[in-house]
Amino acid sequence: MNIKKYRFKFVLVLIAVMAMAALISGCGAVSYYTAEDAAYDYVESEPYAPAEYAMDDEAGRGIENKVLDRTVGEPSLRHVIRNGSISLVVDNTRDTVRDVTKLVNEKGGIVSSSYIYEVREGQYHADLTLRVPVNLFESTMEQLETYGKVTRSDTGMDDVTMYYIDLQSRLANQEAQEARLVEILDMAETVEEVLEVERELTRVRGEIESMSAQFTHLADQVTFSTIYIALREETIPTGTISPSPFHNLGQRIVDTFTGSINVVLSVVSFMVLAFAALIPAFILLGIIAALIWLLVRKLKNRKKRRLEGEVAEEGVEKAE
Fold this sequence. Notes:
Elements: H1 2-31, H2 35-38, E1 67-68, E2 75-76, E3 80-90, H3 93-106, E4 110-120, E5 123-133, H4 137-144, E6 149-159, H5 161-187, H6 191-223, E7 224-233, H7 249-319
Parallel strand pairs: 3-7
Antiparallel strand pairs: 1-2, 3-6, 4-5, 5-7
Helix pairs in contact: 1-5, 5-6
């Protein structure tokens, strides 16, 4: 029984040592990987991007940037995060926002954030964040430049191939370790052994969940590029007359008149509600006032009768 117990603990220690070795080797691979190595490294892996976003090899775009291995001579997959930013001066910000949203939807992307604000009467600016398939990044940037006057345009990329592969490899190692621990759990014979294996299994599954979340986020960044776009309406010179104050003047008059009526009605309804709320207080004050009036009247009548009695007594004394 002791031999089985020691052999069981030896297996657990061996698995823990293998996990630490895999983790250290993975971190070392990322830390010492250079751009020069990236030009020759060859790794066999499958891209995360869906089939409908597959890149045209002749276009030279997307996440499948090819490099030649110095020994094998076969291309390997590169995992690249693409991002860009563009500033445009446009005639009408709100119309341009609608055009940009339509363009992104047609390309299978989304507008992840949109902020439109008024800088002065009738003049609007907007800031948008777009997510589009990475193989459509260049074409999207080119089409966005046609929506106005370009004042700034930046593009960039971040090669995350080694981090992607390292994370994928460590995730696979953790899943293999989880499967091995499940097998060991079936072999456990005592409560102590079961608890020890379950504790280690819980730790491994926690790392798997964390790595899975990181890998999902990284894969999303690789599959969809990010574009930040700033829209600014052209500032009208002070020496010219701007038609902006008269833009939708009739509708603005109607809105203002309707708003005024709503304010008046709100005030009237508030006064009615306030009066209704004060009715119990008015009733109570009326009762108190009536009691005070009755008391004062009673005192006056009493004083009046006393004075009349005194006058009558004085008249009798004088008559005597």
